[in-house]
């Protein structure tokens, strides 16, 4: 065993509040075999725009690094003028925030580096590290002329308490939560959703007009499964707002698979009948009052109601005992998280350039991840109340998980090679599947709390 793998294993054992009965090694023949023998259906639900410290900041479970366990964490109002005051993470957040924090590439860059246009060479050499101190500054820059600065600081720094998000709290206590899962792209929604299903955003750094038009010729998980006779459906909320990702790829249209994009109402009936495909990809609705993604101006409690409905449909359906439900988010939405995003392997040689708020051009080289996002594994085959720390790359390096970890792991389940170098170097998580099924998974989740 590699020394680094041993260290990883020790850290893993020390951090765990409940150790799974078979803590196997990632990327090993035995863990892959175990995954393939237990899991027949994978369900992925990608919600919108919440950081780990924001949504799970009040979860008291051991091993989760967040404001209630390790904070408070503070940001200045102004990164160059500390005398203008600061705000530290506090319990209790809003059910809905109307001043949508920036999650553009350069907005994210300010949030992480206190600078819209940092020196990329220093970043790549590891000489310039992010400190996650620019969240309030960016919010005040965008909204400070018309809004109360103290309110703006609360919006990006505060966190949800366990009783504000009872559905998430129950899932954290009953299933497996990643402590170090980052979005793949330090930018907004669509590039992150692209990377989640294709291992790259194809050089896209903003939600441009090419999304939704079958424009991309990158290989997606949909094409991969379709060409190898695995079944899939992209269930989407026809109210719209996110995805449906399958409609972003030229293959879906040219291979006549557009009919695999179906309304989310069919998900509930398929789950009840035991007719879910091997891969179900779910799109919540976005953005605004009455939508389900948790994207701000939509209610957190409406997002919780949606997650509860998806969970209970799976839990009461005949396929539950072979199902792995992965609940994740696209990106942090500009909400504070205190863990600096690490560097990561570039997926390809593409770059993305945009004009920053200081008037300068900034080029993002896709060589670093975005902030931490909540990601949970939900299945009778995962540990109860388990917090996973960092993972292991195929070469035995200890690395943070990211959206690419999904494709790395699905490649083991359904026999395909990593789509990009980023996916190749990602930590997989098939070793978190246990060898025996739990019998104590809750049939229902608590009701969401509107506030
Ligand atoms: C920060 O302070 C500087 C210097 O006073 C000022 O020019 C800048 O506009 C301030 N930025 C924000 C976001 O308040
Ligand atoms: C801003 O909001 C805070 C509450 O967070 C309040 O105490 C303060 O009076 C407000 N300031 C102004 C100028 O309205
Ligand atoms: C998929 O199924 C088709 C039709 O039955 C068959 O011709 C093809 O060889 C199969 N492909 C794979 C990769 O199994
Ligand atoms: C897709 O459907 C069209 C129209 O029915 C047909 O002409 C074409 O051959 C189909 N393509 C594939 C890849 O099956
Ligand atoms: C969140 O999602 C919206 C809608 O897709 C998108 O416009 C935005 O860039 C994302 N990020 C934030 C911080 O809202």
Descriptive account of the structure:
The protein has 451 residues and is an alpha/beta fold. It is 30% helix and 13% strand. It contains 16 helices and 16 strands. The chain has an eight-stranded mixed beta sheet, sandwiched between helices. Strands 2-3 form a two-stranded antiparallel ribbon. It starts with a helix and ends in a 27-residue tail after the last helix. Mean pLDDT is 92; it is low at 1-21. One 2-acetamido-2-deoxy-beta-D-glucopyranose (NAG) binds at residues 228-229.
Short description:
The protein has helices at 3-15, 29-38, 52-55, 67-70, 105-113, 120-124, 135-143, 149-157, 166-174, 189-198, 221-227, 250-254, 264-273, 300-316, 404-414, 421-424; strands spanning 41-47, 74-76, 86-88, 176-178, 181-182, 232-236, 261-263, 279-283, 323-329, 352-355, 361-364, 376-378, 386-388, 391-392, 398-399, 401-402. With 451 residues, the chain is of the alpha/beta class. β10 (352-355) and β11 form a beta hairpin.
Q: Describe the largest sheet.
A: 8 strands, mixed
On the 0 to 100 scale, the average pLDDT is 92
From the spread of the alpha carbons, the general shape counts as globular
What is CATH's topology name of the domain at 27-67 and 162-432?
A: Alkaline Phosphatase, subunit A
Please report which band the strand proportion falls in: under 5%, 5-15%, 15-25%, 25-35%, 35-45% or over 45%.
Answer: 5-15%
Poorly predicted runs: 1-21
Strand segment count: 16
- Strands of the biggest beta sheet: in what spatial order? 7-6-8-1-9-12-4-13
In CATH's first tier, which class of the domain at 27-67 and 162-432 applies?
Answer: Alpha Beta
Number of helices: 16
Query: Level of helix content?
Result: 25-40%
Bound molecules: 2-acetamido-2-deoxy-beta-D-glucopyranose
The CATH H-level superfamily of the domain at 27-67 and 162-432 is Alkaline Phosphatase, subunit A
């Amino acid at each position: 065993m590699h020394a680094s793998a041993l260290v990883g294993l020790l850290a893993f054992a020390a951090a765990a509040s409940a150790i799974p009965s078979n803590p196997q090694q990632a990327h090993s023949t035995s863990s892959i075999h175990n995954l393939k023998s237990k899991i027949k259906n994978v369900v992925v639900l990608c919600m919108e725009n919440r950081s780990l410290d924001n949504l799970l900041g009040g979860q008291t479970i051991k091993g989760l690094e967040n404001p209630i366990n390790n904070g408070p964490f503070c940001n200045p109002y102004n990164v160059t003028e500390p005398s203008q005051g600061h705000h530290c993470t506090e319990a209790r957040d809003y059910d809905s925030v109307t001043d949508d924090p920036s999650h553009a590439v350069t907005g994210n860059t300010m949030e992480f580096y206190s600078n819209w246009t940092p020196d990329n060479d220093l970043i790549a050499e590891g000489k310039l590290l992010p400190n996650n101190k620019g969240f309030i500054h960016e919010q005040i820059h965008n909204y400070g002329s018309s809004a109360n600065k103290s309110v703006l600081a609360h919006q990006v720094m505060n966190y949800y308490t366990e009783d504000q998000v009872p559905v998430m709290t129950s899932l954290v206590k009953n299933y497996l939560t990643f402590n170090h899962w980052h979005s793949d792209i330090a930018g907004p929604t669509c590039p992150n959703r692209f990377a989640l299903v294709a291992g790259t955003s194809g050089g896209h750094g903003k939600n441009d007009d090419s999304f939704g038009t079958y424009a991309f010729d990158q290989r997606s998980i949909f094409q991969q499964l379709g060409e190898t006779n695995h079944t899939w459906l992209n269930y989407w909320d026809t109210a719209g707002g996110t995805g449906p990702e399958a409609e972003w790829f030229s293959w879906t249209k040219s291979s006549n698979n557009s009919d695999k994009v179906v309304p989310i109402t069919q998900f509930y009936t398929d789950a009840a009948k035991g007719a879910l495909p091997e891969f179900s990809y779910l799109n919540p609705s976005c953005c605004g009052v009455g939508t389900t993604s948790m994207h701000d101006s939509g209610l957190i409690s409406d997002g919780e109601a949606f997650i509860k409905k998806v969970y209970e449909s799976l839990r009461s359906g005949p396929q539950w005992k072979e199902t792995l439900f992965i609940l994740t988010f696209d990106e942090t939405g500009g909400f504070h998280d205190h863990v600096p995003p690490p560097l990561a392997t570039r997926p390809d040689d593409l770059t993305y350039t945009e004009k920053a708020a200081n008037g300068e051009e900034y080029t993002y080289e896709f060589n670093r991840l975005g902030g931490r996002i909540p990601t949970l594994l939900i299945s009778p085959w995962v540990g109860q109340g388990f917090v996973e720390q960092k993972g292991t790359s195929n070469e035995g390096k200890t690395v943070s998980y990211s959206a690419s970890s999904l494709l790395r792991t699905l490649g083991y389940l359904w026999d395909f090679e990593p789509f990009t170098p980023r996916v190749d170097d990602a930590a997989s998580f098939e070793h978190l599947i246990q060898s025996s099924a739990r019998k104590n998974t809750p049939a229902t989740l608590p009701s969401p709390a509107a506030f």
